[in-house]
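Read as amino acids, tokens; as here:

___
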Amino acid sequence: MQIFIDLDNTLFDTVQLGLDTASLLQKTYDIPPEIYEQARQEMFADNNKIYSAKLHAEYIGQKTEVPNNFVDIFLDLFRNEDSEKYVFDGVFDFIAECSKLGTVRILTYGEEFVQRPRSLKSGIAKVVSDVIVTQDNKADTIKEYFGNDVPKETIVLIDDSVEHLDDIQHAFPDSLTIHIDHGGSHNRENGSHTYAQSFDEIEALLLEKST
């Protein structure tokens, strides 16, 4: 199997990181958390659903008073991010088990400036075959990665984004698309993807697929 795993909110608790960052900004610069979140959502919508730390900082600055060098301050938060702290429990054991069944790569959607260091500092990059950062359709990215000579093995994508799973399912009809939902906020019966709330569930699914 060719196993591709998303990073944010799949292996890495980006939601908690955002909450902690908003709390830090409130304590240090008196920026209300709701301003942080409003700016994030607006930036996300305006930037083709791609997170940009620089744009996020600029949007915050449009909504409230910030220091003149706030963009640099905000970017430094990412440069100094304690990434290992936000890796979900069980990730390294999960990747080790996946590696017994196929080639494991990270396929993460976003900004190189954020995603590449995050995968490295968290330790995740050290235990996978490769880390692919893209701002394009994930299915197109896989095709480009293999030079359009995609292996005949089963393509697996484990992701929290139904949109990205849809793209893979459409491009690779025989793929296994697994929707991981750590918070259990989605209906297990909805959608055309295999649903899982834990790494143990996914391990069982992959093992079944490999036999």
